[in-house]
Fold Carbohydrate-binding WSC.
Amino acid sequence: MTILNCIVFCSSRHHVFAGLENGEDCYCGNDTPKNLEAVSPDNCNVKCTGNSSESCGGSSHFDLWWTTIRE
């Protein structure tokens, strides 16, 4: 998994958001996540399984990205 792979996957399914967790889990959605809050980058430091120079979230923390789809 990489950031771009997750964004492309979610965008191709017409989702607004792409979220990455635990270095390999990609989640898609159309609604603003509930309880959204910024956290320290230290919480999202798990390297992506497909590109170790990128971080793909953390344990119980998501990196959240916009896809090319807009509400």
